[in-house]
Amino acid sequence: MPRELLMSGAPSDEFTTWTTPASATAYLTCKQKSKSGKRAQKEIIMADEHQEQQNLVYVSAQEAQAYAERVLQANGLTPANATTVARGLVAADLRGIDTHGINRLPSYLTRIRQGVLDPSAEPTLHVKTPVAAQIDAHNNFGFIAAAQGIQHACTVAQTYGIGMVSIKHSNHFGMSAHLCQTALDHPSGPMMSLVFTNSSPALPPYGGRSKLLGVSPIACGAPGGPNHPDFILDMAPSVAARGKIYKALRRGEKIPMDWALDATGAPTDDPAKALEEGAVMLPMGGPKGSALAIMMDVFSGVFSGAAFAGGVTGPYDPSRPADVGHFLVCIRPDLFMSRAEFGERMDVLYERVTEGERAKGVERIYMPGELEQITERKRREEGIPFVKGEVEGLDAEARKCGVEGLRVM
């Protein structure tokens, strides 16, 4: 398996299953062509990366946070809620998940201006049992309801060992790993977590042609041992996150041929065609990715009372409220053993995973989330990279509401 697959966690070709005979034929043709031109393709990628490096500017985490707070407050959020949303966006930028960072702000602000996202609403929490609660987000940012939910679940778990919160009438809550990290940083002590959400249609069910299921991330976290980092898994059930296609479109880049099918059912490297009506993204592992997306809809949509079965409105669609659902669980890691023993066992797991015999060409084996932690340390020191066009777009949003734009380093 190539080094980049082991490092990124991306599925290999052996696990890619296609939904229709026509698309399978197109895929095989594409794969045969790609095998013969891998060297040329690599040279193109390297040239694109070099060109992008030449076009980069850097922004400190503090400035990214301050910019986001300025723009959000100017669009109707309270200072506290603006801080919550901005913190979630900047956390994504720091971890290298640029698809969920402050570049999302223009689409969010468009929804506010269109009247389909209420920046002044406050979530309401209803306790159902000692360990379970439900939050109605009242169509404000998902970041706000999810932050309240994960804190409540952690507090309950401190007393009862486990806490869970279901959320309805919400919106996109950003990078799921941020909520896992919030649970790990809880003042009462680090908590294990499960973070589920549903999202707007992007994937067909296995064997289908029409979009129905969301690219809904599956996330979980657990505190690491005394000698190694925390464990955080955050992955979409698709070959790639949908935000990566929007990022490629924004930057004028092509996408890998195995990410999506265009409206004719053929693989495409054009992000615009991958996002047009009738195009679909592809699930990882065929029926397995499809099943995971359905699971997300059961727990986040059906169970919460939010939209489900294709009913969620996309974050880039300003036509009506999204009605996203979330499901959050926090668990005390010393529920079945001492905290010290749990930590020792996590250290053993880390060492067994990362210190085993490596496949050819692999320099290092990483635990899930470890690459993002390394990226965060680097970006806190060097700044968050943006292409100049992205900064121009963010500055345009600042001008619309009369606040200062983004200051680069």
TrEMBL record:
Signal peptide: none
Superkingdom as given in the UniProt entry: Eukaryota
MF-aspect GO terms: oxidoreductase activity
InterPro entries, alphabetized: Mal/L-sulf/L-lact_DH-like_ah (IPR043144), Mal/L-sulf/L-lact_DH-like_NADP (IPR043143), Mal/L-sulfo/L-lacto_DH-like_sf (IPR036111), Malate/L-lactate_DH-like (IPR003767)
Keyword NAD annotated: no
Keywords linked to the UniProt accession: Oxidoreductase
Oxidoreductase is among the record's keywords: yes
Record-stated family: Belongs to the LDH2/MDH2 oxidoreductase family.
Protein name: Malate/L-lactate dehydrogenase
